[in-house]
Amino acid sequence: MRAIAAAALLPVFLAGCASETSVIRQEHTYVVEWIGERPLIDRSHLTVTFSADGRAYGSGGCNHWFAGYQLKGSTLSISQPGSTRKACAPALMEQEQRFLQALSEVQRWDFSEIDQLRLWPREGAPIRLWSEEY
Questions:
Q1: I want to staple 112 with a disulfide (CB 3.0 to 4.6 A). Which of 49, 73, 95, 116 is the partner?
Q2: Please, are residues 111 and 21 in contact by the beta-carbon 8 Å criterion?
Q3: Do the bridges between strand 127-131 and strand 47-50 make them parallel or antiparallel, or are there none, so unpaired?
C-alpha cells in the first residue's frame, strides 16, 4: 500500500522540484556559448534577452542587436534582427553575422540535460546559451 501511495506522489514531488530553467525566462540575460557547430571566438561576449513585451535584444559581440519574437510553447520565432553599425575586427564581424542569421532561422527551443538553453534553427545545430546566473 505504501509503495502505491509513494508512486502516486512521485509526479507531484518531481513537479515541485522542477528547475526554473525549464522555461525561457523573460527580462533575463542568456550568454551565447556556441553558434551551430562552432564555439565563440575567445573573449567575445554575445547575449540574448527576451523582454516581456515581445522584444529580444543583446550584444552580438561587436554591435547591439534587437528583434521581435513570438513564443508559444516550444515554438519560438525571431524576426530578422537589426543592429547598430559599429565596425570591429573582421572575425568578430563574421561571427556576429552568423549569429544574427542563425537567430532569424530559429523555430523552436528547449533545454539540454544540463539546463543549457538551445535555440533550434530550421536545419543544423542549435545556438547554445547559458544563464548569466551560472
A1: 116
A2: yes
A3: unpaired
Cell numbers linked to 94: 563574421
Phi, psi of 30 (to 5 degrees): -110, 145
> What rounded mean pLDDT belongs to the chain?
85
Q: Which long-range contacts (CB under 8 A, 24 or more apart) does 37-44 make?
A: 37/124, 37/125, 38/98, 40/95, 41/91, 41/92, 41/95, 44/92, 44/95
Give domain 24-131's CATH number out of 3.30.70.920, 3.40.1190.10, 2.40.128.270, 1.25.40.10.
2.40.128.270
| Percentage of the residues of the chain whose pLDDT score is greater than 70 | 82
Grid coordinates in use for 12? 507531484
Distances (CA, A) of 117 to 6, 83, 85, 86, 130: 32, 23, 28, 28, 6
> Which set of grid coordinates corresponds to residue 104?
532569424
